[in-house]
Amino acid sequence: MSKANSSTDTGADERTAEGSRTGAGTRTDTGADERAQRRADRAAGERLSTAPREEGPEAESGSGSGGGVPAMGVIGWIRWFWRQLTSMRVALILLFLLSLGAIPGSLIPQTSVDDFKVQEFKDQHTTLTPIYEKLQLFDVYSSVWFSAIYILLFVSLIGCIVPRTGQFVGQLRSRPPGAPKRLTRLPAYTTWRTEADPEQVREAALGVLGKRRFRAHTVGDAVAAEKGYLREAGNLVFHVALIVMLVAFATGQLFKSEGGKLVVEGDGFANTLTQYDDFKSGSLYDSDTLAPFSFVLDKFVGTYEESGPQRGTPRTFEARVTYNKGADGPDRKAVIRVNEPLVVDGTKVYLIAHGYAPVVTVRDSKGKVVSRNAVPLLPIDNNITSTGAIKVMDGYRDKNGEKTQLGFKAFFVPTFAGHGKGEMFSQFPGAQYPVLALSAYHGSLGVDSGLPQNVYQLDTSKMEEFKDENGELLKKMLRPGEKLDLSNGEGSITFEGIEEWASFQISQQPGNGLALGGAIAAIAGLAASLFIQRRRVWVRAVRGADGVTVVEMAGLGRSESAKLPEELGDLAAALLTTAPVAAEKPETAEGPKGPETAEKPEGPGKPEKPAVSDASAPSEGRDDATHEDDATNEAGSRPVHPAEAPAEGAEK
User: Fold this and answer.
1) Is 378 in contact with 355 (CB distance < 8 Å)?
2) Contacts of the segment 371-374: beta carbons below 8 A, 24+ positions apart
3) Rounded to an integer, what distance in angstroms lies between the CA atom of residue 394 and that of residue 447?
């Protein structure tokens, strides 16, 4: 009797017996068993992840009578809200909202950065200003809505990471699960027969998998192994790094300090609040924590490209300073360049701007020197054309001996290039042909009112013009060494020369290092979670009825991967050195070869590695059972499960 006929008769007998038990037209339990097995296999893949499963409100409250959903109650709603908040979906949404919220903080002037720009924006946009103020768009990072998103994201990440970490630690402490009953259903599968003993095959499999850094152990008649734990570890590291960056951002905003100081060559700065031109700090900052240090600007060095299309481009831009730590620290030399700050006890001194300060001497009607100062002027273009005001507040008396104040509007060009549109302009940022234009006023500067003034602007509302011989405003362009005589012998102002100034930003950001570490960890964790695949491999070795050991290998990955069958093939090839493919028996006089008998290999030699079937891509129009039956090894025979091995004495 042939095997095919035997199989057909057996199937008919089974269907007849089943029909007699369940009645005509009733399906057998075989299909249900197969569907249950497929669901179990899918569940095995899902268990490779430590992500907590989300449950809907129905699962929290339980099933109600009559098919309706009962009320969850306060506790049920709180638990449901917590699960939604700590889900990965909500965390990503909050992270996206936080990114969107940072956009207006970058496009709209912020009060915490520059009050003058905010006020200028308000003056130019009188319609938008009330709307922006209600939405707190001038203080985005301290607004209620931005803080709410920030705190919710922080809580969501913590609530998501804590349970996942516990589950991941539990998986690290546990061993890989045992082999499924039907390995042929897994995405990657291979099988062969060998003369080696099952115990020898399993021992060799433990060695091969151990060398490939798999965690492996023997469970029953199979070896279970797992690898790729760094994938989930990277996922957790990424989320922890996000929390670290959020903490760093909050720390920087709460404990930061930042101020600006303009220093002319020869002058210095001491790190105290009274020395700053402007100073801002976080809400929890303590001014007593200012690092004690000081420095003197010895010289500013700026060189520029003098020819070609890059003419005027800065080449050297550095401030040479002498600094010391504490009150009695030794003097030390340093050079501050752009993006190369001076660091003193965690405080960084950045070089942010540069300009010219004409040195002027003011004399009264008797020739007495009233003031002699280097007056910094504000650059208004790339060629350092500068504008500002020279103010003489004390010490000047007119020819009648009465105290009054002087004011001069100043316009300076480092390299004079003639008049353009009614004003001087500079053709080069270097001081090759400096010219200072002045116009003179006298009266009250308005400084006695106690209201703050812009040092670069002159308020002439309470001042009178000095007149020239034509009755017009007295003004003149001066070269170094030249002077402007005030009308009616009221005195003079002399342009002595020029000095350079540098503007520094002194900042203390305690969270910068923490943020950098968090960013690096986030990138590393994200790379690990994207490129490392977590997978499991099982090797089953059992002795068949004919005494030949049947070896089965199968792999299961956390996600679809084309490398899984290739890796399984490499593992099988390594295992073949210990458990080579057994030679098939030749034909006998009892009859022709059965359907499971393959031809004997021609000549001796090392067998090739067995073919690995990819069960994740079944043939079109075939169900799982058909695909399982069609899987073959390199000899052309059907992969034989140990439970399906023919009984001793069965007909061939």
Assistant:
1) yes
2) 371/395, 372/496, 374/264, 374/265, 374/499, 374/501
3) 11
Of the candidate ranges 30-39, 152-161, 196-205, 289-298, the one whose mean pLDDT is the lowest:
30-39
Q: How confident is the model at residue 607 (pLDDT cuts 50, 70, 90)?
A: very low
DSSP assignment string, 84-110: HHTSHHHHHHHHHHHHHHHHHHHHS--
Q: DSSP assignment, residue 28?
A: P
Residue 295 per-residue DSSP state: E
What is d(CA 124, CA 537) in angstroms, rounded to the nearest whole number?
A: 69
CA distance 442 to 407: 6
Structure tokens at 502: 């540098």
Rounded to whole angstroms, the Cα distance separating 411 from 425 reads: 10
Which residues partner with 467 through β-bridges?
A: 473
Q: Which residues contact 4 (CB under 8 A, 6 or more apart)?
A: 595
Please name the residue that has the structure tokens 């969270």.
Answer: 511
User: In this structure, which amino acid lies at residue 140?
Assistant: V
Backbone torsions φ then ψ of 242, nearest 5 degrees: -60, -40
Mean pLDDT of 442-470: 85
Interior CA angle at 202 toward 210 and 222, to 5°? 100
Report which residue type is found at 451.
L
Give the separation between CA 548 and CA 579, rounded to whole angstroms: 11
Residue 535 to residue 514: CA distance in whole angstroms = 34
- Largest alpha-carbon pair distance within the chain? 143
Selection from 214, 83, 236, 227 nearest residue 169 by Cα: 236
Q: How far is CA 318 from each of CA 46, 342, 411, rounded to the nearest angstrom?
A: 60, 12, 25
Element (H, E) at 332: strand 332-337
Integer CA distances (angstroms), 440 to 373, 376, 443, 554, in order: 17, 18, 11, 93
Amino acid at 575: L
The pair phi, psi for residue 156, each rounded to 5°, is: -60, -45
Q: Which two tokens stand for residue 246?
A: 């959020």
Contact 528, 233 (CB under 8 A): yes
Backbone angles phi, psi at 556, to 5 degrees: -140, 125
CA distances from 439 to 432, 468, 476 (A): 23, 11, 7
Reduce the DSSP state of residue 189 to 3 states and report it. Answer: strand
The 3-state DSSP class for residue 440 equals strand
Q: Return the HEC string of 448-480.
A: HHCCCCCCCCCCCCCEEECECCCCCECEEEECC
φ, ψ dihedrals at 385, nearest 5°: -60, 125
Place of tokens 């607004």: 143
- For residue 16, what is the enclosing H or E element? helix 3-22
- Tokens for 519, please give them: 């960013």
Q: List, in sequence order, the alpha helices (H) in 532-562.
A: none
pLDDT tens-digit map of 289-348 = 888 999 999 999 999 998 888 888 888 999 999 999 987 889 999 999 988 999 998 899
- Residue 389 to residue 408: CA distance in whole angstroms: 6
pLDDT digits (tens, 9 = 90+) for 504-563: 999 988 888 889 999 999 999 999 888 888 899 999 999 988 889 999 999 998 777 778
8 A C-beta contact, residue 86 and residue 160: yes
Residue 48: both structure tokens together: 């490779």
CB 227 within 8 A of CB 211: no
Number of CB atoms found within 10 A of residue 564's CB: 22
DSSP 23-66: -TTPPPSHHHHHHHHHHHHHHHHHTT--PPPP--HHHHH-PPGG
Cα separation of 339 and 587, whole Å? Answer: 84
CB-based contact 575:607 (threshold 8 Å): no
